[in-house]
User: What shape does this take?
Amino acid sequence: MSCVESGRRALHPPLTAADVPAAELGAPAVELLIQRIADPATRHRHVLVAPPISLRGRTGPARAR
Assistant: This one.
């Protein structure tokens, strides 16, 4: 059992969390870095990665403003 998993079990109620996919974040970052090194004049780009959300016991309706 990993530290994260054991910590997750200790929380009551369980917390909602975004599951951050390291490979999906790292691969585009490396590609952009390689492009930037090859051509420093390359324009800045933004890459949007939508991680999956694990809905657990702490998810509820939004508060009224």
User: Anything to note?
Assistant: The CA atoms of residues 17 and 54 lie 5 Å apart.
